Automatic annotation (TrEMBL):
Amino-acid positions noted as binding substrate in the UniProt annotation, renumbered to this chain: R73, Y212, G213, G214, S263, N378, S379, R380
EC numbers on record: 4.1.1.32
Protein's pathway: Carbohydrate biosynthesis; gluconeogenesis
The protein's required cofactors: Mn(2+)
UniProt signal peptide: none
Protein's name in the database: Phosphoenolpyruvate carboxykinase [GTP]
Principal location: cytoplasm
Classification via InterPro entries: PEP_carboxykin_GTP_CS, PEP_carboxykinase_C, PEP_carboxykinase_GTP, PEP_carboxykinase_GTP_C, PEP_carboxykinase_GTP_N, PEP_carboxykinase_N
Active-site residues, as the UniProt record annotates them: C265
Cofactor binding mode and count: Binds 1 Mn(2+) ion per subunit.
Domain Phosphoenolpyruvate carboxykinase C-terminal P-loop per the UniProt entry, residue ranges: 237-597
Amino acid sequence: MSHPHTSHPRLLAWIDEVAALTTPDRIVWCDGSDDEWTTLTDALVESGALVRLDPEKKPNSFWARTDPSDVARVEERTFICSADEADAGPTNNWMDPAEMKSLMTELYRGSMRGRTMYVVPFCMGPLDADNPMFGVELTDSPYVVASMRIMTRMGAEVLSAMGDDADFVPCLHSIGAPLEPGQSDVAWPCNETKYISHFPETREIWSFGSGYGGNSLLGKKCYALRIASVAARDEGWLAEHMLIMKLTSPEGVVRYIAGAFPSACGKTNLAMLEPTLPGWKVETVGDDIAWMRFGEDGRLWATNPEFGLFGVAPGTDFHTNPNAMRTLAKGNSVFTNVALTDDGDIWWEGMGEPPAHLTDWKGQDWTPESEAPSSHPNSRFCTPIEQCPILADEYHDPRGVPIDAILFGGRRKTTIPLVTEARDWVHGVYLGATLSSETTAAAVGQVGVVRRDPMAMLPFIGYHAGDYFQHWIDMAKGASGDASKLPKVFYVNWFRRDEDGGFLWPGFGENSRVLKWVCERLDGKADARETAIGHVATPESLDLTGLDIDQAALEAVLRVDKDEWLAELPQVTEWFEKFGDKLPAVLWAELDALRARLADA
Ligand SMILES: O=C(O)CSc1cccnc1C(=O)O
Ligand SMILES: [Mn+2]
């Protein structure tokens, strides 16, 4: 079969089928080149979808504004279409796969009319991995193509590596906004009907109607978490919503730490941390997704399958994340739903004193007297990870890095102490499975509501969460029977507040003090208080050198309040009951043991 771009029959057949259904005016095969990026972004600027920023401020960078109806992940429109509804579980929306495909086929029919269908071959993780994880996204959004070039290894090199028979995840995306001949386009075309659908058995992704973020950059949440978590269950590894950091002590001891925090709870900031403790060094491997497989040494090795950073903009500045700001200063980035300054740069809340005038994320005039924020709370920067000044060399290693500790963290005003070490692996899985956090703007819906967010994966588990918990329990078997090879598990909470609503802990670079305690626990050095909920740091065991924090706040942030934890028990019981007989019995046993320890406390 001769074709100018590929000899992959399944790929060609799929593309022909989709083109016949969606009827694009043309098909463009993306090669991932600089010329292609220039052509794409020039056209997006010409159409008004992008504004080129001043090259003196952010070279080769752009400002985008979405339709106000298309600003975040749409969890209520996200479906896991497993053959058996029971396999989707109680935390996912489900529709029969044949019914969903029939419904979406009619949505896709003619949806790309008047537009270009882009063929985006990509790879999640290094191309030289033992088993490269290929995907091909067909999309009618040039904004998505530009973003995928930043976020994934994308283009001709991938297509070549796929050869004529590589497995790949077909990712079909349409914004659902066909153009009639002569009809002018809008800056952010989308459709009020949105479906983000996953077909686990056939490892397919179909997305319709949204042009933004995790709804449309299908390599990220859809592939690298929801579909990959199903593959990981079947193949004995973990696809997790985690940062990966390399932490080096002043003595040169290196530890690798993975951290699971819900959306917009500071993973990017932690992954790029500038420690306040002298001599400690953080280097970044990843800020959002970790794939963890057992190495020959029986340890869990983690890789970051992404090629870029898609971070929350508001709150990011030189105090909270100087390395992110240094990454962005190098340009080659797309900023979405932030504000535009009059001199061609970007601005968002948290960047210090606002300019006298801005163009806000809705394209309106904004001044410091404006009531609404200039930038959407879920506004994002999209930037190449290789621009990160503290990117660890190991990022490029297809083996990844051996994980010493896993942090589970949430955003809780109360109850959860600053840092607790799990009693053992199963207790660590219990802490992850019962992780709770206040909701954020990363997903459409009310903000600030406490919900269970197991392993920070609630919106991303591609199958029954009860089976997911069991998979985590079973991972202990993979450590060649030696539990000491497994990462230690810790539960952190940077967000506890005092009675006046103020934060008890300064967070950001000061979190390096907690990381030091974690490392010293790994070395068997740091003290901890044995409590009903686990091994909790004591004020004396934390290195507080140079930190201005009063003793009352320190004791409050580390407190295990019996009544607060007793109040958690019925909430956890209600949470566990959702999973019926699929909830591992050992987790019920952990709850019973916690209840007994609290009774004795
Ligand atoms: O996809 C979006 O629109 C925001 S959600 C997101 C983006 C990057 C990294 N993580 C998330 C998340 O919700 O966890
Ligand atoms: Mn995330």
